[in-house]
Amino acid sequence: MNPSVTSEHTHSVWMGVDMPTARTLNEDTATEVCIIGSGIAGLSTAYRLLQEGKSVVVLESGTLGSGMTPLTTAHLSHVMDRGLSTIERLHGEQGTRLAVRSHTAAIEWIEDTAAKESIPCGFERVDGYLFAPFDSPAHQIEEEWAAARRAGLTNVTRYDSAPLLPFPTGPCLRFTRQAQFHPMRYLSGLARAIQQKGGRLFANAHVTEVDAKPRVSVKTRDGRQVSADAVVVTTNTPINNTVTLHTKQAPYTTYVIGAGIAAGSIPKALYWDTEDPYHYVRVHTETVGGSEQTVLIVGGEDHKTGQAEDGERRYAALETWMRARFPMAKDVLFSWSGQVMETIDGLAYIGRNPGDSNVYVATGDCGMGMTHGTIAGLLLSDLIMDRPSPWASLYDPSRQRMKAAGTFLAESLNVAAQYGDWLTRGDVPSEQDIPVDGGAVLRDGLHKIAAYRDREGVLHQCSAVCPHLACIVAWNRSQKTWDCPCHGSRFDRFGKVLNGPATSNLTPLPDRSKSTPSS
Fold it and tell me: By Cβ atoms counted within 10 A, which residue in 33, 172, 189, 267 is the most buried?
């Protein structure tokens, strides 16, 4: 069957949830803790601090929960994406045990909070299956099995083939008591609970500056200011830290499709394989118009953000992979992509921003955004309340792991190579070669221009220089965005900033009049 995914992808299976009404920041204000970002990390931290009696303000650049949380596949697991054997090599046996315990605690906290606040987010416990492809070497599964036992996971079972999947696989490990949920329903319930506890949530409050003084000052694009004793930056990648953390993590784009299936045709569980890039699968049931709809969610085909121009091919590859293994899958109903920050040692950076005493960050989700984000809520609230945490050193943003030096060097060289784009020609010879609803980088002497032609034929031009650290952005054809290949900043087709670390738009250039592009 030919891949059926369409040309523009923004529709996540989690869309359509009503979030609580947020305030507009019309005047300067003060609080004990200011949180930037309203995804799962920001709202979990806010909720926990309100339980401790702290006053909390949350600032969101767009609408509540509009960052990366709605672009997840919402796997809840204590098995890290990089593999337990890799985490053990980089962090040692004790570090791996702590990592597993922290992710386990995060899942339990989500379960308890959803029950306590009566959040109808479909939380349910499921098993997780890690499997090798058919006829592939078994050594990776054996290494993971041994590492899991050393990490204290005594309830892991090994199979010669995945028992629930409708296609042959290589050896498989079953991890019990993993979980899944509806991330946006959960986030909506968490936001309502925060408001009920007196937390103040502000939308369309785009932060442009964090000034760390004895009392922190947070400034927005509209000229408003929030003063606080402490600030927590939970913006997927930090907007307050210009260089340090960005040298220790890299942005990757991951792709997801969702296809209809008959209820019960695939058992509910989390499935992921050992391929590179790997694939991850789960089943979600949603009530639509009074009837239940079951969706098979399949993700994978990751690549460095801004360093591939074949998004359509990757969606098609996911569908091809799915149909070869799940013949019961019907039409593709949803397709979207998200950005994953991969740290050099496989664990998030959660704690004090390097060099600051009252600025905290949570970044580097490493494909574990729902659990890492929840760990952030637990760990950061402990730090702000001046309580010890057994996980503090494990996730410390200032940590150095010498065993990750090779990855650090490789990612640094990759970033350095991207600055060579200053010397290259444009994507197309001239603006006439840019199609309607398409974009390209043009060269104009020493300048690089990000040019987008709208559906009316009008050409809109911005500087192609990312305002973060001056990389040249790349056109993302499937998402209709400009993506920075160095540190992951993203901008809409007209140059408006969507994701940090950049806090300002691409510099606009005068629009051109209508013209007819060449065919």
Answer: 33
